[in-house]
């Protein structure tokens, strides 16, 4: 059981508690888990009844797809069940408790928060809030949910095999992008055709060009003038467009984006092999004092605490 806990904490979340249900149960834990850029995909089973407790995810969205058995979940005050006909979706807020029977084996898919939010934003071409107001699950029998789950299973099978197409870096990257974009089109949310769900007007191309540039190279030393040139407008025009359609200035958005990237990297890093300063420098933070203050203001903990906890 200790080995199972350590494995899942290392691959998924640091503040993860796994406790057996009953007296001296026999555990038959097995898991195939692959980290591929902003997604972590795995097939996991314990072979005995357990209870799992996870603190608020903060940096990721998570999907559980039972292949066998029934999973009972408590999240944000709501109780939900998942089985091979319906997946569960978790937002990066609120603690999670799972009653996981030994008969349940499932696909566990973690997607970095910024990656899914960016994909939903791009798919809808309209402003969305963070965290996304997603539904608690989606159907696995018909529609896009069935296709998405099949895609994830195939990707995991290919990545775990020695000679599959997914072992080629370019193919793996494309498959990874398909998983994220497919999930963005599968999850239930209030955007799209529901007018009441709109959080703002469509973003103009000038704003999207600047956003695309920042997301493509978050560590690059951009000035507002650089972003305005990429967008094909003047500095004042870009700043006003960001104020109206993003709710902040371009450089404020860039700083938040960089902080999110640092947080995500520290959350999955090995505390013995990673350095806070190295990660911060890589994302353009050259003044470590100001960086640490901004980080704590955004996430409520210091960078070193995140690395130590290995969230």
UniProtKB/TrEMBL annotation:
Residues 208-309 form the HTH araC/xylS-type domain. It comes from the Bacteria. PROSITE patterns: HTH_ARAC_FAMILY_1 (PS00041), HTH_ARAC_FAMILY_2 (PS01124). Signal peptide: none annotated. One of its GO terms (molecular function) is sequence-specific DNA binding. Keywords: DNA-binding, Transcription, Transcription regulation. SMART domains: HTH_ARAC. InterPro entries: AraC-bd_2, AraC_XylS_family_regulators, Homeodomain-like_sf, HTH_AraC, HTH_AraC-typ_CS, Tscrpt_reg_AraC-type_HTH. PANTHER family: HTH-TYPE DNA-BINDING TRANSCRIPTIONAL ACTIVATOR EUTR, HTH-TYPE TRANSCRIPTIONAL ACTIVATOR RHAS-RELATED. This is AraC family transcriptional regulator.
């Amino acid at each position: 059981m200790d080995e199972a806990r350590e494995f899942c904490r290392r691959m998924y979340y640091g503040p993860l508690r796994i406790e057996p249900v009953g007296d001296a149960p026999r555990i038959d834990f097995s898991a195939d888990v692959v980290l591929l850029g902003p997604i972590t995909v795995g097939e996991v089973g314990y072979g005995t009844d357990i209870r799992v407790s996870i603190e608020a995810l903060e940096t990721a969205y998570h999907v559980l797809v039972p292949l066998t058995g029934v999973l009972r979940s408590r999240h944000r005050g709501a109780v939900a069940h998942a089985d091979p006909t319906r997946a569960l979706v978790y937002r990066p807020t609120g603690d999670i408790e799972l009653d996981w029977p030994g008969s349940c084996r499932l696909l566990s898919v973690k997607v970095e928060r910024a990656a899914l939010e960016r994909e939903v934003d791009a798919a809808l071409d309209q402003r969305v809030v963070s965290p996304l107001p997603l539904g608690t699950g989606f159907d696995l029998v018909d529609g896009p949910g069935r296709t998405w789950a099949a895609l994830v299973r195939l990707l995991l099978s290919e990545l775990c095999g020695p000679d599959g197409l997914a072992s080629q870096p370019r193919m793996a990257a494309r498959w990874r992008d398909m998983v994220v974009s497919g999930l963005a089109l599968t999850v239930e949310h209030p955007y799209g055709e529901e007018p009441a769900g709109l959080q703002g007007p469509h973003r103009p191309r000038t704003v999207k060009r600047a956003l695309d540039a920042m997301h493509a190279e978050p560590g690059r030393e951009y000035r507002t003038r650089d972003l305005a040139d990429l967008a094909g407008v003047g500095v004042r025009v870009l700043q006003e467009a960001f104020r109206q359609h993003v709710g902040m200035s371009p450089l404020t958005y860039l700083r938040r984006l960089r902080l999110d990237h640092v947080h995500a990297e520290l959350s999955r890093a090995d505390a013995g092999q990673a350095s806070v300063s190295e990660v911060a420098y890589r994302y353009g933070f050259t003044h470590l004092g100001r960086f640490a203050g901004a980080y704590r203001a955004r996430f409520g903990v210091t960078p070193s605490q995140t690395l130590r906890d290995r969230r």
